[in-house]
Write a structure and sequence with these properties.
There is one protein chain. This protein is elongated. The chain is built from 10 helices and no strands. The chain has a single domain, classed as MetI-like (MetI-like fold, Orthogonal Bundle), CATH 1.10.3720.10. α3 packs parallel to α6 and α3 packs antiparallel against α8. It has about 250 residues and is mainly alpha-helical.
Length: about 250
């Protein structure tokens, strides 16, 4: 029954969003050229699909996202597990991380473009910066809170440090790590689009900028809708991944 409710809830939410969108246009008296209606945006989406532009830009953005995200989260998890079990080292590194972390990845874009030029790499670097710190901090915090009983069991079994991290610390920290992964998905996806607006000639961010420059607001909103839908799907993917790994470690609810 719960499985059947989820698609229904999504459909109801989608209908409510479209209704609010159309009401805002009607009550505000906006011209279609200034605030395109859902119908106009849908037709623009069809045109982008027919031309092949949308699929091309989606494929480029997703590939950049996948590369930057994986390059960020894998070392962030590994480092977080190790640093979480090395409190003295973390006390030295924590102020540095807290100093760099609040800086928006886009703020680095002038240097990133100068160092890496125009193309895929600037967007990937921005995704890396956006995803790395949320995962690192949640992993460190989770690893530091591992119950003392686990440490005693590991000592009794005489496991080495690598086995201790893999077989004890990581499973115990996994629920918190997933929270960091979810936050990282949202921030990295947001800054991917921003990065493509600055240092790329393709992708969904560039699609929006190009449409804005030609005053094609229907295509701008079409790009925004696609970005939102893909962000939602990425978040759902993390939920599926959490359940899958949770079953493996025996922590799934």
């Amino acid at each position: 029954m719960e499985v059947m409710k989820k698609p229904i809830n999504f459909i109801v939410s989608f209908i409510l969003l479209l209704t609010a969108w159309q009401l805002l246009i009607t009550l505000g008296g906006y011209d279609d050229a200034l605030f395109p209606s859902p119908t106009t945006v849908f037709l623009s989406l069809l045109d982008l699909v027919k031309s092949g532009t949308l699929f091309k830009d989606v494929a480029v953005s997703l590939s950049r996202f996948a590369i930057g995200y994986l390059l960020a989260v894998i070392p962030a998890i590994v480092l977080g597990l190790m640093l979480g079990r090395m409190p003295r080292v973390w006390q030295v590194l924590d102020p540095i991380v807290q100093l760099i972390r609040p800086v928006s990845p886009v703020a680095w874009s002038p240097f990133i473009v100068l160092w890496f030029g125009i193309g895929n790499i600037p967007a990937i670097v921005i995704i890396f910066i956006a995803a790395f710190f949320p995962v690192l901090l949640t992993t460190v915090s989770a690893a530091r809170k591992v119950e003392h009983d686990y440490i005693k069991i590991a000592q009794n079994l005489e496991v080495n440090k690598f086995e201790f991290l893999c077989k004890f610390v990581f499973p115990a920290s996994f629920p918190a790590i997933v929270s960091g992964l979810r936050v990282a998905v949202g921030t990295a996806w947001i800054f991917l689009v921003a990065g493509e607006m600055v240092g790329s000639q393709s992708g969904l961010g560039f699609l929006i900028v190009d449409a804005r420059n030609t005053l094609n607001l229907a295509n701008v909103l079409a790009g925004i809708v696609v970005i939102g839908l893909l962000g939602f799907l990425l978040d759902r993917f993390i939920s599926v991944f959490e359940r899958f790994i949770g079953r493996y470690f025996g922590t799934a609810s």
